[in-house]
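Open question from group meeting: does this chain pack into something compact, or does most of it stay loose? Before anyone orders reagents, we agreed to write out a predicted structure and look at it together. Recording both the input and the output here so the notebook holds the full record.
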Amino acid sequence: MDEQLIFKLAGKEIQEMHSKALKHDVHAMYGIAMFLKEKQRPNDAIAWLKKAANQQYASAQYELANCYYAGDGLEVDEAKAFALYEVAAKNGHADAANNLADMYLNGESVEIDEEKALEWFTYAATKGVVEAMFTLGIMYEQGLGTTVDEVRAYDYYEQSANGGYDDAQYRLGCIYLEGLLGKVVDNQKSLRWFETAADQFHIDAIYNLGYLYEKGIAVKQDGSKAVSYYKQAALLGDYQAKVNLAHMYETGECVSRNEKEANKWHAAAKAQLEEVNEEA
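Structure tokens returned:
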């Protein structure tokens, strides 16, 4: 479909935005780019993103960087993605700062620089990026780009978890289960954080809940709940959950023995293992 026809059919608001974009309104340029991207017009969207990015519009620089990084409508070019993330971050874009930090941490198109990564993750965290908070927790826990600081590591994990980041919620569950980062073992807090992460379909949290109910750790042993959580994890692709289900049905541990179910889950685990080996 012709681009002009798309705008005609889009309604008055988009038509007015397009008119402003043609008059070099950078906010409108970005809006039109995102509209065209939604309409599966990547080439047209990228053309508008480039125009807005050239006028130092941070959101356009960030979106264009994503296109270069992921090969979305453009050939993958990590160096161009890095450059655009950097300029967008310097223009105040928090998610760009987080992605720039990731590239420094992992050495993508740039030498690994943990101190630079820490600097940009910290900036992104101050702007509310929960993923950056979680990564800062890892960096302070492991001493990456800084000295080990368990208090700060925990604080960042907690900020991220309270912000809704499921990996951080899962990590807090592990911290309280094992008594890490100077925290005493607290089974109830551990359970609560695993449940919170599981509500967001965090596969490891779901598996852990199955394990806790199977073994009666932090909770009263409950075979039916263990099976329920293991099945959720298995359906999300967790290999060990399939193995555990097969074992429980085969041995009658916490559940009634069921040869048919045991064989089904043995077969599912075997198939997944074979698939992984083939891919390797």
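Observations to bring back to the group:
The CA atoms of residues 177 and 190 lie 5 Å apart.
Residues 259-279 form the longest helix (21 residues).
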